Amino acid sequence: MSAGVHEIGRLLRLKDQRLQAAERVLAAAVAAVRAAEAEVARRDAAIAELDARRLQLDRWFVDPPADPRLIAAALVRREFLADRREAEAEARRLDVAALEDAEAERAEAARAVARAQARRDATDQVLDRLRRALAHRQEAREELEFEERLAGAGGLA
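User: That's the sequence. What structure does it adopt?
Assistant: Structure tokens below.
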């Protein structure tokens, strides 16, 4: 039976290694989610900045100067800001999709950690039960040997 304890001990070490590997995958997935969240936040800030610039330009158009060249330049600038905003908005849509993928991977990694932990715990419980059974068996053997020695020495008088 001690060979069984050894084998289960080896299995437990393997389960520990698998759990550690799953935890490393989860840590990487958490980092990927944080990076994706930061990228979405950066895009949001860029879009807000472009919106603020365009709003400032729109306010300028309320009372524009008489010089048509300044008006033309402002219109070109406004079109440029609109194009940049659209590019940022499209990039943000892609970043949100990447964030959703990262969150899905993080959730799957968390489930894998939970499964690995459950398997490791189950193996640990089997090992504990086996050790207790061995200890009980050893105790019963020692008690039997003691009783046999007592009986061989004349027994209880």
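The chain has a mean pLDDT of 92.
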